[in-house]
């Protein structure tokens, strides 16, 4: 039995999950400020519920982003510490692929555009297609305005998977839309496929996926972007 721990903290909804036989058990943490303090206690609770020891874990999966800078750094730090201590590999799961897994589970979609709010009037987005139980990255994660992402979706007749805080203008109401957020429970099946294929990383290689060099804009930059 392969046992995988998963940590997802790339958005305001932090979560941890554990594969235990045919079950996936999870805990949610709310509030970004709780991410760093709540992860380890939540993982301990999962292990107790599954009647497992930390040393039985075969790999640790983590949400590498794109997403919140603090959250992704927190996940990397926790995962590196655990993986070094346990001498187990890590598995990187892109938050947008996580959303594709959620949409497939909840709606049966196999070809979709996943979008997350990136703040600063931009979105993170990627095109995923299901292929033999895995997610093919048709278009790699990108950072742009919402209009650019919607134009791509329209040109390719894709339904949209939207994270919290994203709304499609009424002029684009013809899109099929579902809502999903990255969650550790949806990282588990992705990580299982990666584990079976040997797509594993060393602890030191647990790094965030950054699409933006700057994480904030000056007032002048925001005004220029809005045409003020």
From TrEMBL:
Gene Ontology molecular function, alphabetical: tRNA N(6)-L-threonylcarbamoyladenine synthase activity
Domain Gcp-like intervals: 33-150
Pfam families: TsaD
InterPro entries (UniProt xref): ATPase_NBD, Gcp-like_dom, T6A_TsaB
Keyword Membrane: no
Gene3D superfamilies: 3.30.420.40
UniProt keyword annotations, A-Z: Acyltransferase, Transferase
Enzyme Commission numbers on file: 2.3.1.234
Entry-linked PANTHER family: TRNA N6-ADENOSINE THREONYLCARBAMOYLTRANSFERASE, TRNA THREONYLCARBAMOYLADENOSINE BIOSYNTHESIS PROTEIN TSAB
NCBIfam families for the chain: T6A_YeaZ (TIGR03725)
UniProt name for this protein: tRNA (Adenosine(37)-N6)-threonylcarbamoyltransferase complex dimerization subunit type 1 TsaB
Organism listed in the record: Undibacterium danionis
